[in-house]
Amino acid sequence: MKKPAADDQVPALSRKEEILAAAASLFRQQGFERTSVREIAQALGMTSGSLFYHFASKEDLLVMIMEEGLRAITRSVQQARDSEAQLPQRLLAMMRRHLAALLGPRLDAMSVLLYEWRSLSPAAQAKVLALRDAYEDLWTQSLQQAADQGCIDADVALVRQTLLGALNWSAQWYKPGGRLDIDTLAQRMFVMLFPRMAVSLPQSLAVA
Amino acid sequence: MKKPAADDQVPALSRKEEILAAAASLFRQQGFERTSVREIAQALGMTSGSLFYHFASKEDLLVMIMEEGLRAITRSVQQARDSEAQLPQRLLAMMRRHLAALLGPRLDAMSVLLYEWRSLSPAAQAKVLALRDAYEDLWTQSLQQAADQGCIDADVALVRQTLLGALNWSAQWYKPGGRLDIDTLAQRMFVMLFPRMAVSLPQSLAVA
DNA sequence: GTCTATACCTTGATAGAC
DNA sequence: GTCTATCAAGGTATAGAC
């Protein structure tokens, strides 16, 4: 109902999505404040005035990038949670999805999400924060189950912060095409952070 | 030789240090780009022109905040390393110092250090990066010893990134005066990340 | 060492032609 | 839907009096 769906079957990016992608890329590289609307427009072969036909303000652009990023990673991790019955496999799958969202094709949006939230007005911050809290709840649930089974530290909030900190920091150092691919990275971090769950995985990696 | 050291024995902040502290505070709260030199001057009861007597440029201010922060945390962690002979105690002490620098009185400078490096010109980035690498080497050394003893994963670089990620992320969620003080936080994270070393500590915390 | 005043530039956003 | 032209505001930095 959204579009007549013409002849082209390729899910090409709409103009709006193109703009979001270009903006996210620049925001990640230079930061939100250092990136001018003129730069964004230029990257798309437009002039700055045209941007404001698609978006109400520069902040609007930032909010949409963040919301889209959060919705995408939430959807992906939720899927992983629902697809694995066993707890160790489930947490490992969730970590994989988190890292894939962070370091894969969505790198730009996710980095912006992590490091540009101070540029949001208080009103916009509240909106984005609500989505972030919903995402973190996903982790709290599964980690709570692990804690109930005595597999991890009982302070679930602390475990979640430690885990997400380790995962998110990878955006600062991970280089695609390096010696570690994303799946391997997830597995290594899993073993490091949840050694007592790792032993019950099918193929458990040695530590030393 | 630097100053005649008059009668006052109080190590009062020099004007330059006052400016650095005020700027760091604003940079942390609002970000470097969103903070104008006028604001910084106003916070000190000056006008913007006066700032440029003390600093060559706004970026100069940022660089000095970062360098000072890095030198301080390096000195502190180095001290911890040298004061503990046993490896588990040494790593725990280093984690304590890192968290204390990050979350204590130096919170402003350290947050700026973590989250504003993109605002540096390439030349300035290189200078700061050199100091950061020296700091990280401190960790690599001690972690390598732990790896040699088979106490941790052999991929020392990965362990270091995971550890520093978990520690640094605390700047995003830790609230002073909350249920965890800094020493306790360090100990809990140590147990979580280095369970095989934790068992050889005097008073080891239970996990579940 | 700090102030006032200001030069000069870039910014986000708007209006209206096409 | 994009362009040109333009505005008002706010940015960094400088000059020179005090």
UniProtKB/TrEMBL annotation, chains A, B:
Alphabetized, the UniProt keywords read: DNA-binding, Repressor, Transcription, Transcription regulation
Q: According to the UniProt record, which residues make up the DNA-binding region?
A: 36-55
Q: Does the keyword DNA-binding apply?
A: yes
The answer on whether this UniProt entry bears the keyword DNA-binding reads yes
- Give one GO term, molecular function aspect: transcription cis-regulatory region binding
The HTH tetR-type domain extends over 13-73
Please name the PANTHER family in this protein's record. HTH-TYPE TRANSCRIPTIONAL REGULATOR RUTR (PTHR30055), HTH-TYPE TRANSCRIPTIONAL REPRESSOR KSTR2 (PTHR30055:SF175)
Q: What is this protein called?
A: TetR family transcriptional regulator
Q: Which species is listed as the source?
A: Extensimonas vulgaris
